[in-house]
Design brief:
- The chain has 8 helices and 7 strands.
- It is α+β, with helices and mostly antiparallel strands and about 260 residues long.
- Strands 1, 2, 3, 4, 5, 6 and 7 form a 7-stranded antiparallel beta sheet that branches.
- Helix 1 runs parallel beside helix 4.
- The longest helix has about 40 residues.
- The chain is elongated, with a radius of gyration of 28 Å.
- The protein starts with a helix and ends with a helix.
Length: about 260
């Protein structure tokens, strides 16, 4: 569906140039150049061709993204009506006045936002229920300890060094996943440990990492209220319970941190 919508946009964009009157030989040449853009490489495109391509690509991306949004929200974009509206706009044969079109478009945006909000609220509630069920079952497993706050942890590898305080700066490697196994962050993949003050991260980390010693590796199961709560960030949706594998590499001294 998305590819066909992009194609419709591109066709309409090219049609826009075809409908423009040529007032000079230069204009006619320019129109020919634009029509032949698809047959040339990006290196040989003129500035006019690049601008025309950018206009068509912008329209195509907008329509494609909007189609994807509406598909996810349960009311697919009507391709036939989209194409008809495009052609009527190009040919100046609109079925509505420009003011009416603006009003209809605003109504569509309001419907889209309302549906997004409705689905976000449902997802947040679903996350609360899924997280509670997960933590309840996980607490029964051997090796899982639940703290007074509700944080759960497993010791994967014992450490032998010191344990940090909340005010300390720590250097860690970590991997974070959602309950369905989706990885949303990993310092291992970046091949670069993270370094930060322990009291400036989510509460589950601040509490949990203080239980570790240098060289230790723990797995934390963090309830949403000790993670990001109702906030959404990246692929983390509101009220998500998170799982982190954390390796405490080093407690950084103030002098070294300053350097």
């Amino acid at each position: 569906m998305q590819k066909s919508l992009v194609a419709l946009s591109t066709i309409a964009a090219l049609g826009l140039f075809a409908c423009q009157p040529n007032t000079s030989d230069e204009a006619a040449t320019t129109g020919t150049d634009i029509a032949e853009t698809a047959d040339v490489s990006t290196e040989s495109m003129t500035d006019v061709q690049k601008q025309a391509y950018a206009m068509g690509a912008s329209m195509g991306l907008f329509v494609s993204n909007r189609a994807q949004q509406q598909e996810q929200l349960g009311f697919p974009l009507d391709e036939a009506a989209l194409k008809e509206g495009f052609e009527d706009g190009l040919n100046d044969t609109l079925k509505f006045t420009p003011q009416e079109i603006q009003q209809i478009a605003q109504q569509g945006e309001e419907v889209l936002r309302a549906k997004q909000q409705e689905m976000a609220q449902k997802a947040a509630q679903d996350n609360i229920e899924a997280g509670a069920a997960y933590l309840e079952e996980n607490a029964k497993k051997d090796g899982v300890t639940t703290t007074e706050s509700g944080l759960q942890y497993e010791v994967l590898e014992e450490g032998e060094g010191a344990s940090p305080a909340a005010e300390d700066i720590v250097k860690v490697h970590y991997r974070g996943t959602l309950l369905d196994g989706t990885e949303f962050d990993s310092s291992y993949k970046r091949d670069e440990p993270a370094q930060f003050p322990l009291n400036q991260v989510i509460p589950g980390w601040t509490e949990g990492v203080q239980l570790m010693k240098e060289g230790a590796k723990f797995r934390f199961h963090i309830p949403s209220d000790l993670a990001y709560g109702e906030r959404a960030t990246g692929s983390i949706t509101p009220n998500s319970t998170l799982i982190f594998d954390v390796e405490l590499l080093e407690i950084i001294k103030e002098e070294a941190a300053a350097e």
